[in-house]
Amino acid sequence: MKNRNWIENFIHTLILLFYIILTNNLLNNLYEKSQITYNILPYHILYIVIFIILGFLVGSLSFFHEITKPGIWKINLFKLIFLGIPTAYFVLCLLITYFNINWLSFITNMYLVVSVSSNMCSVICLLLGYTLITSFYKIDNKNCSKSIYK
User: Fold this and answer.
1) CB–CB of 60/131 below 8 Å?
2) What is the pLDDT of residue 150?
3) CA distance readout (Å), 117 to 10, 57, 120
4) pLDDT for res 113
5) Which pLDDT tens digits describe the chain residue by residue (150 residues)?
6) What is the pLDDT of residue 2?
7) Spatial CA neighbour of 43 closest among 55, 32, 54, 56
8) Rounded-to-10 torsion of CA 3, 8, 9, 11
9) Which residues, other chains included, contact 115 with Cβ-Cβ below 8 Å and sequence gap of 6+?
10) Taking a C-beta distance cutoff of 8 angstroms, is the pair 133, 59 a contact?
C-alpha cells in the first residue's frame, strides 16, 4: 500500500511537471505574439484557463481517491460559497474588464483588478480550480443523514 501511494504521487508529480512545462512554452509563445500584434486578450484568457486547469490537476489526486470510495456524492457548500465564489468573482472581474461589457460593469472593481499583479492572478485561478474539484466528496451510505423515507 505504501509503495502504491509513492508511485501514485510520483506519477501525479510527473503529470503536473509535464503540464507546467507544456503550458509554459505555450504561454510564452502566445505572449510574444500578443506583444507583436497588440492583441493581449487571447493570452489572458488562455492564462486564466491554464491556471484553473492546473488547480484541477493539483486536486485531481484527492478527487480520484473519492471516486473509488463507495457511497453517495456530496458537495461541500461551505467551501464553494466562501472560497469558490470570491475566487470566481475575481476571475469574472478580470474577464469583464477585458471584454468591456458595459451592462456588467457594476460587478467589477477597477481597483481590485488593477492592484493585483499577474502572479496573484495565477494563484487565484489555481485556487479556483482546486476549490472546484475538491468540493466534491463521497460519504458512506451508513453515515448519511436521516433519510426522508425512514
Assistant:
1) no
2) 40
3) 32, 23, 5
4) 57
5) 566 788 888 999 999 999 999 999 999 999 999 999 988 888 888 999 999 999 999 999 989 888 888 888 899 999 999 999 988 888 877 777 777 666 666 666 554 555 556 678 888 899 999 999 999 998 887 765 554 434
6) 65
7) 32
8) 120
9) none
10) yes
The answer to whether the CB of 104 falls within 8 A of the CB of 95 is no
Dihedral of the alpha carbons of 45, 47, 53, 57, in degrees to the nearest 10: 180
Cα separation, 131 vs 115, in Å, equals 24
Q: At 81, is the secondary structure helix, strand, or coil?
A: helix
Residue corresponding to grid cell 506519477: 11
Measured between alpha carbons, how far apart are the two ends of the chain, in Å? 39
Q: In the chain, what are the helix, strand and coil shares in percent, each to the nearest 5?
A: 75, 5, 20
